[in-house]
Each structure stands twice: as structure tokens, then as C-alpha cells.
Design brief:
This protein is mostly helical. The chain is built from 13 helices and no strands. Helix 5 (101-121) runs antiparallel to helix 12 and helix 5 packs parallel to helix 13.
Length: 341
């Protein structure tokens, strides 16, 4: 019991660490200027493959590579995932370094709503009434923000849809976090390296041109990518999905606070109204998820209790004789009317 508690506590700390690092990463990208967003993105791809490769080598986790190489379908999905996450990473870096941290944070706030919408459109999933309500409120928020911005919040929508699509593709590939990142950055590696070489031939490569500290920071993009993912993987195997679902809001919350408090981005009333609607939608979504998880747990516990009761009665029936067996028959049928079914 003590071990389970320790594992749960460790998982919670890993989760907070992962989402906390993702939430604070807007502080890191400006340190890489004067490198442009595309060069930073290319460095992130190249150095991520190096660091993830070292991690896999240390863990001796290579068995998935031959299986992946023999599956054209999975290779195609990995390529799609790499393409989609390239868009997501590149746009996020550009957003932060051009003063759109708040709008970027909105993308990750509405990402769960977009994920649900993709589930309906692509996987033909059926939504519960509360989920429909949350999606409706989220759509209203986008309309309010579009009016406030004078345009659709395209940064937020692109980040949300690209990350939701990325999650959908990764679900179909079914690879672990480190393995998936290694495969995706392997796809990205040659184009990214080629771009950096091209910048070098033109004399516009920032890497190595602004001191050792700046060079080290560009190389650290691999760690900034890999370390939160490792922490997330450690959390995912130790805490319930419902806990992870709540922790995921830490990252955009930190990003939003950084945008408003640290980067001093404007928050006119219409933007506050739009964000308030998004937070209302997420509150409805979280409440529904917790309620559903509680009902599912209760149903499982009732089913287990019923199975144990039936097993106990079956085992005692031969020793009870004919009369006792009839007396034991009635309780066996009772669980069919379990409360809460």
C-alpha cells in the first residue's frame, strides 16, 4: 500500500514537472534570438533526435525499429505525425517570439475540445450531453474572440487542430513516447539538417555566431523537447488518466499568465470574455469526465462484488444440501439489479 502511494506521489510530481516545463517554455524561446523561428525549429529537430537516441541507447529500447520498418502503414503515419508536429512546433516558436503568447496558450486550452470534435468527425464517437454543451460553449468562445481580434484566432486554431491531429495519428501508430519522438525526429532530421547547412552556406546561420552560450542554448532545444516527454511518460504509467487530464491545463495556464504578467500582452474585455467562455467549456468537460470516471469505478466495484458473491455461494452450495442450495439460489440472481446500472 505504501509503495502504491509513493508511486502515485512520484507520478503526480512527474506530471506537474512535465506540464510545468511545457508551460514555462515561452521563457526559453526568446533566449535563442537572433536565430529565426525556422532555424530554432530545425535545431529542435536535429538535437532532439540526438538526445532521444542517447536515451534509447541507454535503455536498450531498439526492438521496435524492425517492426516499424516492416510496416508501410505505420511509416506513413509516422511521417504524417512528423509533418503535423513540425507545423505545431514551428508556429508555437514563432508565436512566442513575435508576442502572441496569450493567443498560443488559447490553442492549448481549446485543444481538448478540438480533440472531442475530431473524435466525432473522424472516429464517429458519440458524445454525452455535457460534452456537446462544452463543444458548443467553446465554439461560442471562438466567435467572441474572432470579433475581438477582428479576425479568426488562427494561431490558436492551428495549434489546437495540429496538436489534436497529432494525438489522433499517434494513437493509431501506438508507439511509446520516446520511440515515437525518435521516429518522428528521424523523419525530420535530414530536411532540418539540410536547412541548417543551407543557412551556413549563405552566412546567415546563428549557430556558432553569437558566442558559446547562445550555441549551447540552441543545442539545448533537444533537452527542452525530450525531458518533459520523459517526465510525462513516467507520469502516465503511475497516475490515472483523469489526473493527467486535469494536469494538462497547467501548461496553457502558465503560458497565459506569462503572456499577461511577464510579456505584458494586452487583454481587452472581449478577449477576457472569450477566454472565460473557454474556461467554462473546460470546467463542464472536466466535471463530466470526473463524473463518468466515478460512475465507471462504481460499476466495476459492483460487478466485482457480485462476482465474488456468486463464487462464494457456488462454492458453499454442495455442502449445504438440496434445501440449502435452493436457499442460496435467490441471492445469486440479486446482482442483476445492481444499483447504478
Amino acid at each position: 500500500m505504501k509503495t502504491e502511494k509513493n508511486e502515485g506521489r512520484a507520478g503526480l510530481l512527474y506530471g506537474i514537472g512535465a506540464y510545468g516545463m511545457w508551460g514555462l517554455v515561452p521563457l526559453f524561446w526568446p533566449l535563442l534570438k537572433p536565430a529565426g523561428a525556422v532555424e530554432i525549429l530545425a535545431h529542435r529537430m536535429v538535437w532532439s533526435l540526438l538526445f532521444v537516441g542517447i536515451a534509447l541507447l541507454a535503455l536498450r529500447r531498439w526492438g521496435w525499429i524492425p517492426e516499424l520498418a516492416r510496416s508501410p502503414r505505420k511509416l506513413g503515419l509516422i511521417t504524417l505525425a512528423a509533418t503535423v508536429i513540425t507545423v505545431n512546433w514551428g508556429l508555437y516558436i514563432w508565436s512566442v517570439n513575435t508576442g502572441h503568447v496569450v493567443e498560443a496558450s488559447l490553442g492549448y486550452f481549446i485543444n481538448p475540445l478540438v480533440t472531442i470534435a475530431l473524435g466525432v468527425l473522424v472516429l464517429k464517437e458519440r458524445l454525452r450531453p455535457a460534452q456537446w454543451a462544452a463543444v458548443g460553449v467553446g465554439f461560442s468562445a471562438v466567435l467572441v474572440l474572432a470579433v475581438g481580434y477582428g479576425r479568426p484566432p488562427w494561431i490558436s486554431l492551428t495549434l489546437a487542430f495540429s496538436f489534436a491531429l497529432y494525438g489522433l495519428v499517434k494513437k493509431k501508430v501506438n508507439l511509446g513516447g520516446l520511440e515515437s519522438l525518435a521516429a518522428e525526429t528521424a523523419v525530420q532530421f535530414l530536411p532540418a539538417l539540410g536547412y541548417l547547412v543551407w543557412l551556413g552556406t549563405r552566412g546567415t546561420l546563428a549557430f556558432g555566431s553569437h558566442g558559446a552560450g547562445h550555441t549551447a542554448l540552441l543545442a539545448a532545444t533537444g533537452l527542452v523537447t525530450a525531458v518533459p516527454l520523459v517526465c510525462f511518460g513516467a507520469a502516465a504509467i503511475r497516475v490515472p488518466l483523469s489526473t493527467l487530464g486535469l494536469l494538462q491545463y497547467l501548461a496553457p495556464t502558465f503560458q497565459f499568465l506569462l503572456g499577461v504578467v511577464y510579456f505584458h500582452e494586452e487583454m481587452p474585455p472581449e478577449r477576457w470574455a472569450g477566454f472565460s467562455l473557454v474556461w467554462l467549456a473546460l470546467t463542464i468537460l472536466t466535471w463530466d469526465a470526473l463524473r463518468t470516471a466515478r460512475k465507471s469505478r462504481a460499476a466495476v466495484e459492483a460487478a466485482v462484488s457480485a462476482a465474488l458473491t456468486e463464487t462464494a455461494l457456488t462454492e458453499t452450495a454442495p455442502a449445504s444440501g438440496h434445501t440449502g442450495g435452493e436457499a442460496g439460489a435467490a441471492p445469486v440472481s440479486a446482482p442483476s439489479a445492481q444499483p447504478g446500472r
